[in-house]
């Protein structure tokens, strides 16, 4: 397992490196956001987890996390900060931080959180592998989803899916016609992560709509249920015919 430490305070960075290496992890250290983004792009084997100080010079940890999430939706991010204000915490979760610890932190707790995040990631990878074995191609309407290739094709146009977009779409496909609350999506698709905001779920749904709907502003497959969440229907025409008869 490979951990990236993004921390401009050398003493803390070296302390973390030492302790992670004692635990058997491979460790990379960088002191700023651009360095972190570069390593996430180029590291081979890839980075499995990021420990991110939020108070960095120039590019803040918040901004770093926001950017890294575009290309790394699933890498666990554990934020470190001297700040304790609730709105800072909320902002951290908004940009895609998974866990949050305030400095000074207790090292055993930090190591335990890192282990939990890595375990969760391994479980998700297993589940995705199992899901991949189940069925690789799904079609509905004019959409074809190739789950093995993380690709969605509609009207001849192919889009790449992130792991999370694919998981969410699979979940909707598996629950054809069922009203799904945001809380349920949060628990079943985002598992035990309590850190995803409902706004982020809405953003994922909007992205899926742009991929699967003829008119994303007037969706037919993936509709909003006011005050609750969403409902996916594979074949809206059949459903409308049924409700008229
Ligand atoms: Ca700092």
Strand content: 15-25%
**CA(first)-CA(last) distance:** 58 Å
Number of strands: 12
General shape: elongated
- Classified in CATH, the superfamily of the largest domain is Response regulator
* Order of strands across the main sheet: 2-1-3-4-5
Instruction: Outline the biggest β-sheet.
Output: 5 strands, parallel
| H and E string | EHEHEHEHEHEEEEHEHHEEH
Please identify the structural class as seen in this structure. Answer: alpha/beta
- What's the helix count? 9
Briefly say what this structure is.
The protein is α/β, with parallel strands linked by helices.
Which labels suit this protein?
single chain, 245 residues, alpha/beta, Rossmann fold, Arc Repressor Mutant, subunit A, 2 domains, 5-stranded parallel sheet, 4-stranded antiparallel sheet, 12 strands, 47% helix, 21% strand, elongated, binds calcium ion
Tell me what you see in this structure.
There is one protein chain. 47% of the residues lie in helices and 21% in strands. It has helices at 10-22, 33-42, 61-71, 86-94, 107-134, 163-174, 182-188, 198-212, 236-244; strands at 2-6, 26-30, 49-53, 77-81, 99-102, 137-140, 143-146, 151-154, 157-160, 179-181, 222-225, 229-232. The protein has a five-stranded parallel β-sheet with strand order 2-1-3-4-5, sandwiched between helices. A hairpin with a 2-residue loop joins β6 (137-140) and β7 (143-146). Calcium ion is lined by residues 8-9, 53, 55-56.
